[in-house]
């Protein structure tokens, strides 16, 4: 009887010869003990029919880390089915999850450098999650401009504040008062230029003459040696007068500056011109009297430093980028005006929030980050573009996840082992008279044994269940092995 049974199972038992064994029995190295017999397993994937095991095709270090999870596969005729329902590492996006399963959440800064919409030294940035947005955040903040060939204050201009007024140190005629130069007589401040990151010496300053020159008849007198007196070394006729002006050249008649008059009188044994009466000389430009050209240079309220870039500390967003200007009688930093909020990773409307009018978690046009649009047929779920027809985490709807071992087919969760409309694979349907059994379309009531559909009510090899074989003189009737006029054996 045993010989006949072994002979009938020769195909299944393989080249090991079908030696009988038990759980502790020894089999050849290329065989395993299965249901009482040693069977060859050199080309088999598995032994126990219908047993499900975990499967995972991602790197071993990522399994069960972050969003990753193993799937399931089933043993069918010593072959393992496809892995169902696994989630392997994806691309990290700003959604509060560990999408790439490396143990870190939203670490997209590792993606490297990027360019901001800012200028100068603030252009270079690094990608960082700001809420659901992958935002390019500047590596630098605006600094005071220095003569270095760079745009330190990030206003689009290079070394623009370095061209400033100057006057040679220790020289009489001009003195620095509140960041501006107050000069006497013809003396005037010059300027320092910054060229290719190098400061020049003081250029074009008007220095005092060695002595006060005498004014030609018909011309206003000048204080050439910048000592506060005009024509003090010149002879004159007592009682005569002349036009005088003690301010720098080119300022008389500009703004509030006017000439005066001086009279020749006796001073000791010599006749000399007296003080310049009625003249108004330039003063230091100030914010205290708006609309007045105090320094008589032709420009009103050009206070030293006005127009320079600054940071409005009380403002937020892009409004922090300000400029120095006269405000309420003082030179203050006035922030930029707020604009309409745009999806650009910046606080354009200066309300303390970035891109708040855009839902980067669900906006298909700006998914995860501004300007990142999802392709045709994709939805934006949690800041990532996904296919709702196949995603096991977002099946049919965002955040609708299928269970372990369950696949997403056409937007619905389906068990490929039992779903008649998706039997063994998505879209593979069984006929109306069939059922999906272990991933195969079989007639209703059949089982899958050895990779084939069998009727357990009449099948001799799989009577009542897979592997329950009737003896040679038995028949399978109603799922039991029966002999004529004898009791039946049922699985």
What is the topological layout?
Elements: H1 2-8, H2 10-13, E1 31-34, E2 37-40, E3 52-55, E4 71-76, E5 79-80, E6 113-115, E7 124-130, E8 133-138, E9 164-166, E10 174-177, E11 180-183, E12 190-192, E13 194-195, E14 198-199, E15 221-222, E16 241-245, E17 260-267, E18 270-273, E19 309-311, E20 321-327, E21 330-335, E22 379-381, E23 384-386, E24 407-409, E25 412-414, E26 434-437, E27 440-443, E28 447-449, E29 452-454, E30 475-477, E31 480-482, E32 489-490
Parallel strand pairs: 15-16
Antiparallel strand pairs: 1-2, 3-4, 4-5, 6-7, 7-8, 9-12, 10-11, 13-14, 16-17, 17-18, 19-20, 20-21, 22-23, 24-25, 26-27, 28-29, 30-31, 31-32
What does this structure look like?
With 491 residues, the chain is mostly beta strands. The chain is 2% helix and 25% strand. It is built from two helices and 32 strands. The strands form 13 sheets. A four-stranded mixed β-sheet has the order 15-16-17-18, with no helix packed on it. The protein is rod-shaped. The two termini are 19 Å apart.
């Amino acid at each position: 009887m045993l010989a006949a049974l072994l002979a009938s199972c020769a195909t299944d038992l393989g080249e090991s010869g079908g030696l009988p064994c038990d759980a502790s029995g020894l089999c050849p190295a290329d065989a395993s003990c299965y249901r009482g017999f040693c069977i060859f397993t050199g080309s088999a994937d598995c032994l126990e029919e219908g047993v499900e095991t975990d499967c995972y095709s991602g790197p071993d270090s990522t399994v069960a880390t972050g969003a990753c999870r193993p799937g399931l596969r089933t043993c069918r005729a010593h072959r393992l089915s496809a892995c169902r329902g696994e989630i392997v590492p994806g691309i990290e996006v700003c959604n509060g999850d560990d999408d790439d399963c490396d143990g870190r959440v939203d670490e997209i800064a590792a993606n490297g450098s990027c360019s901001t919409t800012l200028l100068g030294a603030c252009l270079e940035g690094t990608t960082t999650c700001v809420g659901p947005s992958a935002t390019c955040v500047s590596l630098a903040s605006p600094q005071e401009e220095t003569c270095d060939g760079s745009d330190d204050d990030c206003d689009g201009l290079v070394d623009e504040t370095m061209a400033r007024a100057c006057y040679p140190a220790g020289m009489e005629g001009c003195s620095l008062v509140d960041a501006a130069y107050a000069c006497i007589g013809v003396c005037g401040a010059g300027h320092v230029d910054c060229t290719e990151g190098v400061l020049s010496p003081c250029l074009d300053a008007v220095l005092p003459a060695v002595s006060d020159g005498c004014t030609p008849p018909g011309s206003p007198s000048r204080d050439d040696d910048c000592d506060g007196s005009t024509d003090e070394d010149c002879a004159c006729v007592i009682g005569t007068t002349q036009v005088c002006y003690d301010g720098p050249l080119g300022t008389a008649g500009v703004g509030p500056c006017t000439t005066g008059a001086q009279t020749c009188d006796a001073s000791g044994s010599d006749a000399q011109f007296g003080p310049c009466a009625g003249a108004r000389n330039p003063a230091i430009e100030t914010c205290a009297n708006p609309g007045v050209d105090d320094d008589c240079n032709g420009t009103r309220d050009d206070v030293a430093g006005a127009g320079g870039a600054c940071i409005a500390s009380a403002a937020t967003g892009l409004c922090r980028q300000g400029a120095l200007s006269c405000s309420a009688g003082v030179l203050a930093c006035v922030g930029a005006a707020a604009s309409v909020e745009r999806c650009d990773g910046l606080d354009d409307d200066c309300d303390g929030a970035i891109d708040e009018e855009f839902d980067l978690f669900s906006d298909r046009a700006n998914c995860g980050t501004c300007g990142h649009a999802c392709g045709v047929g994709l939805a934006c779920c949690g800041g990532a573009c996904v296919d709702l027809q196949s995603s096991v985490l977002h099946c049919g709807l965002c955040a609708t996840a299928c269970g372990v071992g369950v696949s997403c087919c056409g937007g619905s969760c389906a068990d490929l082992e039992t779903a008649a409309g998706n039997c063994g694979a998505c879209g593979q349907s069984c006929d109306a008279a069939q059922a999906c059994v272990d991933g195969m379309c079989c007639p209703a009531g059949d089982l899958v044994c050895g990779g084939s559909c069998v009727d357990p009510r009449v099948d001799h090899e799989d009577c009542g269940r897979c592997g329950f074989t009737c003896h040679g003189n038995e028949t399978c009737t109603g799922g039991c092995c029966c002999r004529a006029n004898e009791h039946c054996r049922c699985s």
